[in-house]
UniProtKB/TrEMBL annotation:
Upper lineage: Bacteria, Pseudomonadati, Pseudomonadota, Alphaproteobacteria, Rhodobacterales
Keywords of the record: ATP-binding, Cytoplasm, DNA synthesis, Kinase, Metal-binding, Nucleotide-binding, Transferase, Zinc
Keyword Metal-binding included in the entry's annotation: yes
Name listed for the protein in its UniProt record: Thymidine kinase
Source organism (scientific name): Ketogulonicigenium vulgare (strain WSH-001)
Gene Ontology annotations for the cellular component aspect, listed alphabetically: cytosol
Active site (record annotation): E88 (proton acceptor)
Family designation: Belongs to the thymidine kinase family.
Biological processes per GO annotation: DNA biosynthetic process; thymidine metabolic process
InterPro entries per UniProt: P-loop_NTPase (IPR027417), Thymidine_kinase (IPR001267), Thymidine_kinase_CS (IPR020633)
Record's subcellular location: Cytoplasm
Amino acid sequence: MAKLYFNYSTMNAGKSTVLLQASYNYLERGMQTYLLTAAFDDRAGVGRIESRIGIGADADTYRAGDDLFARIRARQAAGEIACVLVDEAQFLTPDQVWQLARAVDDLRVPVMCFGLRVDFRGELFPGSATLLALADEMREVRTICHCGKKATMVVRYGPDGTVAHDGDQVVIGGNETYVSLCRRHWRAAMGEDVPF
């Protein structure tokens, strides 16, 4: 039975690694997958999903205005697919999340989305908020703070090395820009007086 899955975490938790492993498992059994990633995240190259541990795969890209239901239906017409895997799902629009839900319901294909839950301010991304509302199953990909506790938040550093408190919700970057922290250390990094 097809379902809409949301696999979420903070930065550097291994979401892309889990996505690539899931795709590999399908391919190993002779089943085709359809990979999608955000067009503007070109850190690994346009249309490329890559993990920090060195594995990667080519993917189709999506932009905010794209109809993902139509794209999945067209891909199915070209050949059977066992699963759709979406990287950087926080960048989906709410309408696109509904399109993915329709693909699950009407095209009967499982859709696994992988993305961040919250931004550097501790606020939900619109795509993530809609996935939290619509997903049939949610799974947390866990990572840890420097203190050893589970990291649930992320801070963003500016070019001058200071923690950003405001700015655009989306700034593409990696380890040089973002650090995952537990809530207590995030509060401290954001300037709150936190007893340790």
